[in-house]
Amino acid sequence: MALKLGLVGIGKIARDQHIPALAADPRFELVACASRHARVDGVANFATVEAMLAEVKDLDAISICTPPLAHYEAALAALRAGKHVMLEKPPAATTRQISLLQAEAARQGRTLFQTWHSRFAAGVDAARDWLRDRTLTGGTITWKEDVHHWHPGQQWIWEPGGLGVFDPGINALSILTRILPRQPFVTAAELSFPSNCAAPIAADLTLTDTGGLPIAAAFDFRQTGPQSWDIIVDTDGEQLVLSRGGACLTAGGRTLVEAPDEEYPGLYRRFVELVADGASDVDLLPLRLVADAFLLGNRRTVEAFED
After folding, report:
1. Which residues contact 147 (CB under 8 A, 6 or more apart)?
2. Domain residue ranges of the chain, discontinuous segments joined by +
3. b/e string for 225-237 if b means 16 or more Cβ within 10 A?
4. Which of 25, 83, 95, 225 is most buried, most CB within 10 Å of its CB?
5. Which of 17, 141, 155 is nearest to 88 (CA)?
6. What is the CATH architecture assignment of 122-259+291-302?
């Protein structure tokens, strides 16, 4: 029997990824949506998640695709209403909010799936397996994209809690924390803030792990032309390269994995498994790395951002 699902937040990511993934998966039935500014044809539409929960009594689960500042209240309301919850990344405005939601899900006996969609790229788990028994000597992340293309008119991303360039940058960190044998931590950061924004447009991070592995990460929202979503890990033998956001994996120049984007179908497959098992999946480490970058970061002001 299909899970009856409500979608909260009908913006670009919901239309580009969530709705098509749900339509292709017979284990879900999209029955309702909640958005202040948009509607989806063929389902019940509401202005708020509270109204949706009150009116659609047979909802099994909700998937939250709003900006992160709205995640906590929406997820808390859904969990208290007895619904399973899937959260788009970034998971919330603070690490504490996610911890509170995790505790609430446990009290209610409901699933909380706090997602990192980039971990479901085709090459990620293969990269983890490849690195497991090798000696690592260094790593480089280059994650640069055009904010005008990927976040057109989305002012929230520049406000406090919107994360700025860390909205895509956290995708790279979610992959890094998945594939490394030892967990990394931030040692220094340089953050570039437009003069008219409260969130960075670029960031350079220095990371390491408990073994002293040097890792450099460069995030930038000002990329034009080809977009860059690449992670390179050097070993004492061959070099591993994850490109196209993790969809392509090469080692020593040999292609090991190359596949189309199937991240969001993978997210919903995982959600079904968690609900069936009565389990939750919450990993705060990528968000903690971003928080530490803000704590340690040297802030510099750059030219104003023009949307």
Report:
1. 157, 165, 201, 221, 222
2. 3-114, 122-259+291-302
3. eebbbbbbbbbee
4. 83
5. 17
6. 2-Layer Sandwich (3.30)
- Encoded tokens for 40: 């989806």
Residue 85 contacts residue 64 (beta carbons within 8 Å): yes
Is this prediction's pTM over 0.85? yes
Q: Active site includes 89? A: yes
- Would you say the CATH fold of 122-259+291-302 matches that of 3-114? no
Q: How many beta carbons lie within 10 A of that of residue 154, not counting itself? A: 16
Catalytic residue among 4, 12, 83, 89: 89
Residue among 295, 60, 44 at smallest CA distance from 185: 295
The residue written with tokens 């050097």 in the block is 234
Nearest-angstrom CA–CA distance, 24 and 206: 40
Q: What is the pLDDT along the chain (307 residues), one digit of tens a residue?
A: 899 999 999 999 999 999 999 999 999 999 999 999 899 999 999 999 999 999 998 999 999 999 999 999 999 999 999 999 999 999 999 999 999 999 999 999 999 999 999 999 999 999 999 999 999 999 999 999 999 999 998 999 999 999 999 999 999 999 999 999 999 999 999 999 999 999 999 999 999 999 999 999 999 999 999 999 999 999 999 999 999 999 999 999 999 999 988 999 999 999 999 999 999 999 999 999 999 999 999 999 999 999 8
Class of domain 3-114: alpha beta
